[in-house]
Write a sequence for this structure.
């Protein structure tokens, strides 16, 4: 789909996913790393727990379908080589602190002068401008600044993040959207532009629009163990099962109340509650609670009944019921249960990529969507440090092997 | 419509509802795509019933979530169960570049509105279906919301404290991940059509898409055979790395030291230079091993100060720190204000509303929010008259036949 385009990926761990998305869509993505390799190669976990720049599973996660070269773009000679690559590039992605690229002579304005069609994508914590643009950052920092963190965790402990860092992935995915929008427009105007992504703004997406609560005059939603609290209402999303936990959407209103009514009928049929409990007005139940016509204690009693029902069944039984009866219940699964699931096997989701250097293949999560005409292909395993130096510098840029050797000696390649 | 908007030539017939689907076309709408969004006149879009409600009042237009997901779209009502609505759908398909839907699989087929039928009407149509688990497989019939997809895709088990049941991420987590990829897939298919003249069908499983945000944990299993679990806020590389209490009730600040230098600087800020010389904390690896003890020390210091004050003090030393913001703090955050994140809009029934602006800032053809989300059927007349060119008589006939509900 994007095979006509070349992407220069200068990002560190903050932006690697963006280039991989374009690579999955068949763009020619060149990952440009400092000599010795990107610091993102030091991020665990490692293959067989051996810390090694060629064995970072984090690096493998976000560098498929890319070629890799090493280049010190902070040195004048390195910069000149990058500028040669920029002339034939369609996208450049970077994740430096704002102003850093400009200080190397590689800011958007400088590169636009060489290649007006270039789409230049910047992924940072807070965006290119504003009072916090130069703030020191980390994934946890942007999670805190972006809104989702305060909503997550147990009320008697600090807010808690997803144990796999998420912050910059949201920003990188938004960056790919911005790049594709700019690309669509370029087909008409022939011109590129600067796409500026702030992780703080991207993360507000992970609040289910409750980031708007103050602006529209609504109550703040508060975190609670296995759910959320709205005022006095405790809304559990994690429920006990016989062999673990499930998530159950036990909510009310004209849309969701229909599911709750259906579930309460089933629960009643199986002797967990009386008919009066079953026949509460589940569609209007939120209003009943908010106006005090239904006491909170009665609601808590109902939650107890439903918990007793879920706890009496296994995750598998509850999923079966959800499918057969249309209940809103799903098992809380471990990573192995996800990966070994029948569903993903039936859809041939996982993709094996050969890693000849290991003498084996590694299974990767499959295409992010299934295109009928132009399916996503996993063409390349994540590259080793400088794997394509020769191919790109000699075969494509026409540099001689001795020049490359000399630049390598000087620490530029 | 501004002539500078990047997607001004893109036309989408949008049957998607609730959150994940509509959030994706909202991104395209900001950049000028024309979105005609079909709602059922009888089965209310769940998003209209979800928090946050304007001034805590429940009503058909009062959901801030619905407003946020549907700004800049035209809203029409069609009763798809009424066969006479299908001619209208087919006319809209002829008009559109892209048709999107997020029903549970088989719904579109049951109505005769699946890809095979629509491509007969318009051979180069692009159609995207998005649902929890994808169009095929034993769980394809499993329908519901993003909290369920997040649970069944591993996000819940990976969020929370080691010694407790999972907390789960907040809400319908896969609905935050999937929309970006939906928008990307639509734009990629448009690019492919521009080059080849071919349309196509796109099958998105929101669970599968979201797994791209868990890849390191997936590879830890497929390459190492290890099943990762939740670890609170601990990080394998950095300590301190956590959320610490501020002086006020339920106020928190995130603090991370990425290097020994940053840790020494934190020790100075805490007036605890002794820690930097302590064997348990002097080097990063030792700090990571003793992270629990260190967290208690940092917490006992942070409790004496306002979270905002800690952010300012530590950032002045270039130590990563930030208040854990709630929606009020986010609204008043000078950075968020500088970036113009929130946009106020007039609204036909609420008077005014607020939505989030475009997330990607494009320098030459920036996105813009032009109109609040439609009330139910707000644009029936505009769409049938101005987009489809129906005359008044035909519209009256269709209305009498119950096509609009």
């Amino acid at each position: 789909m994007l095979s006509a385009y070349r992407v220069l990926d200068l990002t560190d761990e903050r932006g690697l996913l963006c280039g991989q998305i374009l690579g999955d869509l068949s763009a020619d993505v060149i990952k440009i790393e400092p000599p010795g390799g990107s610091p993102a190669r030091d991020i665990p976990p490692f293959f067989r727990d051996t810390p090694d720049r060629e064995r970072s599973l984090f690096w493998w996660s976000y560098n498929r379908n890319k070629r890799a070269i090493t280049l010190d773009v902070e040195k004048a000679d390195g910069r000149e080589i990058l500028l040669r690559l920029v002339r034939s590039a369609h996208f450049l992605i970077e994740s430096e602190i704002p102003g850093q690229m400009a200080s190397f002579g590689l800011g958007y304005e400088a590169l636009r002068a060489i290649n007006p069609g270039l789409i230049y994508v910047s992924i940072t914590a807070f965006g290119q401008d504003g009072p916090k643009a130069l703030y020191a950052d980390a994934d946890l920092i942007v999670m805190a600044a972006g809104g989702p963190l305060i909503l997550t965790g147990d009320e008697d402990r600090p807010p808690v993040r997803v144990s796999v860092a998420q912050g910059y992935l949201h920003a990188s995915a938004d960056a790919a959207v911005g790049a594709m929008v700019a690309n669509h427009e370029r087909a008409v105007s022939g011109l590129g532009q600067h796409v500026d992504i702030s992780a703080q703004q991207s993360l507000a997406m992970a609040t289910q629009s409750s980031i708007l609560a103050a602006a529209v005059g609504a109550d703040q939603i508060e975190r609670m163990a296995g759910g959320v609290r709205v005022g006095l209402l405790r809304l559990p999303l994690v429920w006990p099962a016989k062999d673990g936990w499930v998530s159950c959407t036990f909510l009310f209103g004209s849309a969701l109340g229909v599911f709750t009514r259906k579930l309460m009928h089933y629960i009643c049929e199986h002797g967990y509650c009386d008919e009066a409990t079953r026949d509460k007005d589940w569609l209007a139940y939120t209003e009943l609670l908010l106006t005090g016509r239904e006491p909170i204690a009665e609601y808590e009693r109902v939650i107890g009944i439903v918990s007793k029902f879920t706890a009496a069944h296994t995750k598998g039984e509850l999923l079966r019921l959800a499918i057969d009866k249309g209940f809103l219940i799903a098992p809380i699964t471990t990573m192995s249960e996800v990966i070994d699931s029948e569903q993903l096997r039936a859809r041939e989701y996982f993709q094996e990529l050969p890693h000849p250097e290991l003498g084996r293949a590694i299974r990767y999560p499959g295409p992010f969507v299934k295109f009928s005409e132009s399916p996503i292909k996993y063409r390349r395993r994540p590259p080793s440090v400088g794997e394509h130096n020769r191919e790109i510098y000699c075969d494509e840029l026409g540099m001689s092997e001795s020049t490359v050797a000399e630049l390598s000696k000087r620490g530029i390649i | 419509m501004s002539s500078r908007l990047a997607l001004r030539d893109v036309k989408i017939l949008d049957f998607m509802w609730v959150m994940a689907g509509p959030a994706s076309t909202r991104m395209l709408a900001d950049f000028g795509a024309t979105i005609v969004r079909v709602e059922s006149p009888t089965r209310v879009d769940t998003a209209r019933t979800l928090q946050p409600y304007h001034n805590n009042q429940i009503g058909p237009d009062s959901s801030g979530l619905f407003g946020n997901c549907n700004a800049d779209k035209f809203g029409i009502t069609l009763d798809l169960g009424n066969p006479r609505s299908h001619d209208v759908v087919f006319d809209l398909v002829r008009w559109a570049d892209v048709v999107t839907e997020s029903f549970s699989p088989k719904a579109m087929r049951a109505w005769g509105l699946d890809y095979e039928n629509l491509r007969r009407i318009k051979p180069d149509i692009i159609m995207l279906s998005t649902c929890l688990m994808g169009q095929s497989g034993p769980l394809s019939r499993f329908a519901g919301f993003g909290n369920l997809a997040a649970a069944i895709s591993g996000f819940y088990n990976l969020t929370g404290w080691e010694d407790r049941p999972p907390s789960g991420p907040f809400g319908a987590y896969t609905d935050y991940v999937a929309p970006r990829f939906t928008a990307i897939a639509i734009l990629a298919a448009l690019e492919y059509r521009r080059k080849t003249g071919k349309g196509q069908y796109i099958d998105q499983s929101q669970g599968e898409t979201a797994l791209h945000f868990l890849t390191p944990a997936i590879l830890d299993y497929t390459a190492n055979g290890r099943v990762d679990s939740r670890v609170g806020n601990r990080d394998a590389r950095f300590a301190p790395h956590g959320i610490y209490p501020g002086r006020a009730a339920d106020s928190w600040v995130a603090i991370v030291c990425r290097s020994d230098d940053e840790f020494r600087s934190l020790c100075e800020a805490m007036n605890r230079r002794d820690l930097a010389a302590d064997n348990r904390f002097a080097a990063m690896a030792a700090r990571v091993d003793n992270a629990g003890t260190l967290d208690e020390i940092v917490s006992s210091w942070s409790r004496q100060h306002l979270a905002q004050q800690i952010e300012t003090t530590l950032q002045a030393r270039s130590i990563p720190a930030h208040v854990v913001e709630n929606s009020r703090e986010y609204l008043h955050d000078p950075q968020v204000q500088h970036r113009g994140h929130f946009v106020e809009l007039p609204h036909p029934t609420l008077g005014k509303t607020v939505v989030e602006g475009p997330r990607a800032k494009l320098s030459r053809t920036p996105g813009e929010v032009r109109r609040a989300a439609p009330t139910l059927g707000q644009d029936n007349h505009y769409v049938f008259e101005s987009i489809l060119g129906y005359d008044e008589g035909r519209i009256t006939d269709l209305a009498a036949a119950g096509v609009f509900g």
Observations:
- Chain B touches chain A through 167 residues (CB under 8 Å).
- The longest helix of chain B spans residues 174-196.
- The mean pLDDT of chain B is 96.
